[in-house]
Write a structure and sequence with these properties.
With 114 residues, the chain is α+β, with helices and mostly antiparallel strands. The chain is 38% helix and 27% strand. The chain has a single domain, classed as Alpha-Beta Plaits, CATH 3.30.70. It has helices at 13-26, 28-33, 65-77, 103-112; strands spanning 2-8, 34-40, 53-59, 85-89, 92-96. The chain has a five-stranded antiparallel sheet. The radius of gyration is 13 Å and the shape is globular. The mean pLDDT is 87. Pfam families: EACC1. InterPro entries: EACC1 (IPR045428).
Length: 114
């Protein structure tokens, strides 16, 4: 099992985060291989915490990180203003902030490195 934490930046991060969670729940590959929940963000060391939320994905073995990143890219393309999405797994944090699909392999590889 692996756990991913996904956050969304931009003008309406709370709304965008809920919409991304719904998008992920509608994606067959993600829905069948992961449990998707909204959670309060974990505060950094020395911080008291924030009101920001994250999507927590708990995945089964065989889950495709590349498929997750592609799904997030597809969701970003549907947004009127393209929000920045941050994905964290095992202490590795990557930012999806471009529309370049060539970045998918680089991002997936970075997240799969333990």
């Amino acid at each position: 099992m692996s756990e991913y934490h996904i956050s969304v930046g931009g003008d309406s991060p709370g709304r965008d985060l809920r919409q991304l969670a719904q998008w992920l729940r509608q994606d067959t590959a993600t829905r069948t291989e992961a449990t998707i929940t909204l959670q309060s963000a974990k505060p950094a060391e020395g911080e008291m915490g924030t009101a920001l939320d994250v999507i927590a994905l708990v995945t089964q073995s065989g889950f495709s990180t590349a498929s997750l990143v592609l799904t997030i890219y597809a969701w970003r393309r549907t947004r009127p203003s393209t929000p920045v999405v941050t994905i964290e797994r095992n202490g590795t944090r990557v930012t999806v902030d471009s529309g370049d699909p060539a970045e998918v392999a680089r991002i997936a590889q970075a997240l799969e490195t333990e």
